[in-house]
Write a structure and sequence with these properties.
about 350 residues; two-stranded antiparallel sheet; rod-shaped; binds phenylalanine; tRNA binding; protein biosynthesis
């Protein structure tokens, strides 16, 4: 029995080994049956046979255990080999996102104006008629309302409908109202110095107009603020933003209901080469002016004591000029190739 069993055990695979164990040591196994047969022997024969059978059982058990250990070890080695990870292999590159060019402009403006002591203010996309128009000295039948291609929302009967803000100027009103209630009261109040980058809306759509676009408003209110401050601020901002130290900036007389005097803001460029800064042509990039006394009064600020200036620039417009982007619609199409080209990786 042992002579047959031991070589079989030594070469068995896992399944065969289990079969061998059952056929030898199981309930009906050959060794088990031998042990059962001891009961029918006389005491002397039983003693001798019992010792012999137990020796056989021990030998077989040991052989089974040894073989089992060898097989387990081999299985583990195979598993480790199969699941091996090459830690020296370089990782596959993960595609990383890039900042949208408008976000980049937003961040650049925030940094430039922060250096000049401006904070960032925000307001909602949906505005009251009063904040967007009336308080800004644009009365009900003023043509500026029609010019702005306003999106009107539904309103309760007899109420003026709220609007999608047509410019960031309503945040001037929100900021001045707050200031007049608190900070603007003392004997030497801290002036308002804010920029308002944000979404704006007009019902207009072509290569240079989008129904949703972005502006950045600027507002400074304090004692003794002059047009000289406005001009210096705009020149510093535009030269810093476009990275052109000598960039020509022109303020051209214009009209806005909420500023007096009002000026359009132009920068110099060369129409033939498209180069910014050089040449003798001008590009309009925004509006500006001294805050109208009516607007200050509408916000509870005494126009005899306080003066200020405001400006508004189109964010898409200055971004297109800086980076040579031809079509405004591309800003909002989420074309990954375009975003990769004009965006900045963090
Ligand atoms: N709100 C004006 C516009 O959208 C721009 C502007 C802002 C003009 C502030 C003067 C002062 O056209």
């Amino acid at each position: 029995l042992v002579e047959a069993a031991l070589p079989a055990i030594a070469t068995a695979n896992a399944a065969a080994l289990e079969e061998l164990r059952v056929s030898l040591l199981g309930k009906n196994g050959s060794v088990t049956n031998l042990l059962k047969s001891l009961g029918g022997m006389d005491p002397d024969a039983r003693k001798a046979a019992g010792a012999e059978i137990n020796r056989v059982k021990g030998q077989i058990t040991e052989a089974l255990t040894t073989r089992r250990a060898v097989l387990d070890e081999a299985a583990l080695a195979a598993k480790l080999a199969a699941e091996r990870i090459d830690v020296t292999q370089p990782p596959r590159p993960d595609p990383i996102g890039a900042l949208h060019p408008l976000s980049r402009t937003h961040e650049e403006l925030a940094a430039i104006f922060a250096a000049m002591g401006f904070a960032i203010a925000e307001g909602p996309d949906i505005e009251s008629d009063w904040n967007n128009f009336s308080a800004l000295n644009i009365p009900s039948h003023h043509p500026a309302r029609a010019m702005m291609d306003t999106f009107y929302l539904q309103a309760a009967e007899n109420a003026r409908p709220p609007v999608l803000r047509t410019h960031t100027s309503p945040v001037q009103i929100r900021t001045m109202l707050e200031w007049a209630k608190t900070d603007g009261l003392g004997t030497s109040p801290v002036p308002i110095r804010i920029i308002v980058p944000g979404r704006t809306f007009r019902a207009d759509h072509d290569a240079t107009h989008s129904p949703m676009f972005h502006q950045c408003e600027g507002l400074v209110i304090g004692e003794g603020i002059t047009l000289g401050h406005l001009k210096g601020c705009l020149i510093d901002f535009l030269r810093a933003y476009f990275g052109i130290p000598e960039l020509p900036v022109r303020l051209r007389s214009s009209y806005f209901p909420f500023t007096e005097p009002s000026m359009e803001v132009d920068i110099g460029w060369n129409r033939k080469t498209g180069e910014l800064g050089g040449g003798s042509d001008w590009l309009e990039i925004g509006g500006s002016g001294m805050v109208h006394p009516n607007v200050l009064a509408n916000c509870g600020i005494d126009p005899r004591r306080f003066q200020g200036f405001a400006f508004g620039v189109g964010l898409e417009r200055i971004t297109m000029l800086k980076h040579g982007i031809a079509d405004l619609r591309l800003f909002f199409e989420s074309d990954v190739r375009w975003l990769r080209h004009y965006g900045v990786s963090p």
